[in-house]
Amino acid sequence: QVQLVESGGGLVQAGGSLRLSCAASGRTFSRYAMGWFRQAPGKEREFVAAISWSGCSTDYADAVKGRFTISKDNAKNAVYLQMNSLKPEDTAVYYCAASSGSYSSGDYYYTSPYEYTDWGQGTQVTVSS
Question: From residue 40, how far is each of 17, 26, 43, 85, 127 by CA, in Å?
Fold first, then answer.
């Protein structure tokens, strides 16, 4: 099991930027995928972005493509979400998630929340105007 802690959320004006961070700890093996999801009030949790262990494979939801960038630093056990050109509809609680991982070869990412076994507590992002 891995422990995940998000940070970097806050209040920002439309058109502004935020960078979310997710610090991971507790695992002794590598090659787990990570992703970002978000949930707005009254709505289901939705996929935002995902990245494979190597960082070579990424995917984004259509709503954020071209504006958000996911990245990771395996040496620091951290994943990031750079959010630019923010819109009011981006307002939500953002969650970091990690898949089960494996020692086997391969490089995977997942867009389904059911593929992720560990979740952070979430960080609030609010975009005004």
Answer: 18, 29, 5, 18, 12
Closest CA to 122 of 84, 102, 95, 101: 95
How many H-runs (helices) and E-runs (strands) does the chain carry? 0, 11
Tens of each residue's pLDDT in the chain, 129 residues? 789 999 999 999 999 999 999 999 986 667 889 999 999 999 999 999 999 999 999 999 999 999 999 999 988 889 999 999 999 999 999 999 999 877 777 889 999 999 999 999 999 999 998
Contact between 86 and 63 under an 8 Å Cβ cutoff? The reply is no
